[in-house]
Amino acid sequence: MSKKTVELFYDVVSPYTWFAFEVLLRYQNRWNINLKLRPFFLGGLNAGTGNKPPIMVPAKAKYMPIDVLRLGKYFDVPVKNPKDPVALLFTKGTLIPQRFLTAIDMTCPQFLGNVSRELWMRAWNRDEDITEPASLTQAAKLAGLSEKQIAEILPRINSNDVKERLKQTTQEALDLGAFGSPTIVAHVDGKKEWVFGSDRFPILADLLGEKWEGPLPGVSSKL
Ligand SMILES: N[C@@H](CCC(=O)N[C@@H](CS)C(=O)NCC(=O)O)C(=O)O
């Protein structure tokens, strides 16, 4: 049977998306799928839909840090809450890191997963910046890129082709009807079926005709 394509539309601003990203990487060789990582810009998606980040609702802003830590434990992802989420989400935002990921995707896609993880580690584990050139350089180095590759890729953040590609990917998500991150698309029988959230894996597995074995497939219960 030919592999079914699964696309992850993601922005490293989102801790919930980190969970979905790690789970999909764990399952990409267990399920008969071809996983495509699709960096998009959640700020642009929100502008297009009129949706607002959950943190803008005070009750959700209070609940989310607790939820995120519980989920980090459940998914076995080393997430920690940043001291100043407003800086990460709004003041600095993630246009620059998402452009950087887009540039990586366009030049050396084999590193896209590792660089994405390093950016999540910076923002959502070590509470470090992800917008300055030195921060992006550091993340790319840890992900295995050479200094020469990084020197070539960094300036591309400001190039029109990278900006356009990120816009196009965000528009593709808008055209699907997406309103948040993670958005996961399964290509099944010539149709695109999509789900929102790292809590929809049982549904995704069902759509794909695969088995959901929990967040750590192949690992017997830690209890
Ligand atoms: N229930 C989802 C929540 C994911 C979520 O809240 N994502 C945020 C970004 S961190 C978002 O895009 N939210 C849009 C919305 O809730 O409408 C999960 O567990 O993954």
TrEMBL record:
InterPro entries linked: DSBA-like_thioredoxin_dom, GST_Kappa/NadH, HCCAis_GSTk, Thioredoxin-like_sf
EC number, UniProt record: 2.5.1.18
Domain DSBA-like thioredoxin: 5-208
Database matches in SUPFAM superfamilies: Thioredoxin-like (SSF52833)
Single GO MF annotation: glutathione transferase activity
Residue positions of the active site: 14
Keywords for this protein: Transferase
One cellular-component annotation, GO: mitochondrion
Major enzyme class: transferase
Keyword hit for Transferase: yes
GO process annotations (BP): glutathione metabolic process
UniProt similarity note: Belongs to the GST superfamily. Kappa family.
Protein name per Swiss-Prot or TrEMBL: Glutathione S-transferase kappa
Source organism: Candidula unifasciata
